[in-house]
Amino acid sequence: MDQNYSEHYSVMLRDCLRIFGEELDVNSTSPIADMTFGAGGHTLALAKEFSTSEVYSVDQDPEAFANGQRLIKEGGLEDRVHLIHTNFTNFPAWWSENKSNKPLKGAMMDLGVSSHHFDSFERGFSFREDAPLDMRMNNSDDSIPTAADILNTYSEEDIANIIFEYGEERLSRRIAKKIVETRAEAPIKTTKELENICFHAYPANMRHRRPHPATRTFQALRIYVNAELKVLSDTLPKLYELLEPGGVLIVISFHSLEDRIVKRTFKEIFQTDKNAAKILTKRPLTPSELELEENPRSRSAKLRAIKKLDPGGVEFGGKKEKKNKQARRK
Question: Is the CATH code 1.10.150.170 the one for domain 145-225?
Answer without folding.
Answer: yes
